[in-house]
Amino acid sequence: MAELNGKPVTLDDLQTLALTNYGHFTSMRMEDGTIRGLSLHLDRLVRDCRVVFGVELDRERTLDHIRKAADGVTGVAGIRVTVFDPALDLARPSDAKNPHVLVNLRSAGALTPPPLTAKTFPFSRDSAEVKHVGIHAQLKLRRDAQLAGFDDAVFVEPDDRVSEGGTWNLGFVDQHGTVVWPDAPALPGTTMLLLQSLDTPKQLTAPVRLADVPTMAAAFATNASIGVRTVSALDDVRFPPDHPVLTALRDAYAGIPGERL
Questions:
Q1: Among 70, 97, 171, 211, which has the minimal tally of Cβ within 10 Å of its Cβ?
Q2: For 75, which DSSP code?
Q3: What are 1-60's pLDDT values in tens digits?
Q4: Structure pTM?
Q5: Which DSSP helix (H) or strand (E) runs through 260?
Q6: How far apart are CA 57 and CA 126, in angstroms?
Q7: H or E stretch including 59?
Q8: Taking Cα atoms as reference points, which of 146, 167, 240, 112 lies closest to residue 231?
Q9: What is the mean pLDDT of the chain?
Q10: Which of 116, 149, 120 is nearest to 214 (CA)?
Q11: How far apart, in Å, are the Cα atoms of 71 and each of 7, 41, 78, 157, 218?
């Protein structure tokens, strides 16, 4: 189901989004009416709206739209909130200053899917700090990775710094058991931010170059849909299917209380 500004969405409402592909979004996982990092998701929507449209998104009204769309939904569900301007003119995007809020509900999979494998590609995502809807390049590289026998893509900057996955943040565990978040342009994911707020395990942010990958003890992916997911291979480097630090991260993440919607 989908609602635009709290009302059932129509085909006409979605034409601009489909044809211009300009806007931003966030995706959340709702469990029994609560969402881990709900405040962070709202912060993202407000922050990205300033960047994409140059206006202030009404935080409380946006939250009301989410609540209305999710009213009566029980169990586990995925919620995507997309912000776009239906009146956007392809020739005059600078005039788009009336963003609307589209809320989609969908089924949600297991919080921790099986381990994934990833192939690296030289790629720098446009406006990496914004969760924008322009994901053609990411999906193209995901497709290329799958055609090469992997599950997904990981991006590498021109200076060989590893940055992020196709639609997820990438983390490593070094030989001392420290969680290492790559210092490179990447989306500040809500799951990553929640994990970084934990007291344990020890964590740091530092450049991770391709040459450093074989020295790592484990690798993992994070986003709101999957939580903490093991990366079992990055190119030809194999990692264990599980690691004590990853188990600790999963347990700690599961223990973070959700915010009531």
A1: 211
A2: S
A3: 899 999 999 999 999 999 999 999 999 999 999 999 999 999 999 999 999 999 999 999
A4: 0.95
A5: strand 259-260
A6: 22
A7: helix 59-70
A8: 240
A9: 96
A10: 120
A11: 13, 19, 13, 43, 40
Largest interatomic CA distance in the chain:
55
pLDDT for 136-177, tens place per residue?
A: 999 999 999 999 999 999 999 999 999 999 999 999 999 999
Phi, psi of 48 (to 5 degrees): -70, -30
Is residue 254 within 8 A of residue 210, CB to CB? The reply is no
Pick from 255, 126, 130, 261: nearest CA to 200: 255
Strand order in the sheet with 2-4: 7-8, 2-4, 100-106, 76-84, 24-31, 34-35, 259-260
Q: What is the mean pLDDT of residues 110-117?
A: 89
For 140, counting Cβ atoms within 10 Å of its Cβ (0-12 exposed, 13-18 middle, 19+ buried), the class is: middle
Structure tokens, 29: 């996982």
* Element spanning 155, H or E: strand 152-156
| Nearest one of 222, 244, 245, 242 to 232, comparing CA atoms | 242
In total, the chain counts a number of residues equal to 261
